[in-house]
Specification:
single chain, about 350 residues, alpha/beta, D-Maltodextrin-Binding Protein, domain 2, 2 domains, 11-stranded mixed β-sheet, 13 helices, 11 strands, about 35% helix
Amino acid sequence: MRTTVVIMMIFSMIGSACGIGTSTTPSQGGTQQNLRVLVHDSFAINASLVEEFEKIQDVKLEFIKAGDAGTLLNKALLTKDNPLADVIYGFDNTFLSRALENDLLVGYTPVALADIPVQYQMDKSNRAIPVDFGDVCINYDKAYFLDHKLAIPQTLEDLLKPEYNRLLVMENPTTSSPGLAFLLATIANYGAENYLDYWVKLKANGLVVVNDWETAYYTNFSASSGKGPQPMVVSYGTSPAAEVVYASTPIDTSPTASLTGYGMCFRQVEFIGILNGTKNRVLAEKFIDFMLSVPVQEDIPLQMFVFPANSKATLPEVFVKNIQIPEKPATLGTEMINQNREKWLADWTTAILR
């Protein structure tokens, strides 16, 4: 769904009442099976959870990291006739239609799907099952705005005002997932016919574009490094919580916050699915049940800094205290994105970078 939210990730013990795979009895003296799971590079899960699943199901999990969401899906498509894995996790709604139209996945309806909000269930055939979601938002440096007695922007239009000249850094949408998400947010707001007019005005107001999230956040952004020139950066809605978790000196409140005005954030949903051609269909289904179980869903926020899709999962306190969830995030239909993504990127590049 994204470039790495934080550079480091840490690996909650699973309770015996988690309900993960309890309907399957470990094999008696048989050969242990392997289950291969194709994942994006940001994938992380508590080792104790993995070990418990492996013990109950008498299986060895192999996680194959395959780049970001786009690269992950491309690898799955290129190896479709001889799948690299049994399960794929981490492709998002900006690439969903590509997975579905290429007959990459087979359907499965887990019991826990009843606990996932319908707006995240974007495939009626349940080939792509939502696991988590997150918002790409503009993060801002609280101290900068306070010290400069500068009002916090409330809308995309506010960013065009002269007082915000050269105060925003973003990632190139052709090379970065959060950059693409922010581009999609503007298309959702202004329409495919008019979005470039907004970008031309934003460029004229000193928009700074860099290649990747790491450069934008750790070099250009003033809050994370304390030295960057831009007090606003396109990042993730969960980044303020990460600032607290990974602070070198313990802090209770994040030095950053997110701009969550109407349509300013773009919501990404990440999916899991069973790859067509797997010989481990039953175990693949069990793994999806595992990923949607409450223990795993409650582990996800502090592992991958996204929100659990299962509504029964409880959020960690650091999320509750430091994250602003947008009431009206921008969204676009997956078919519309798939049909127009390359044209939008080419047109944006011509208008902004050339």
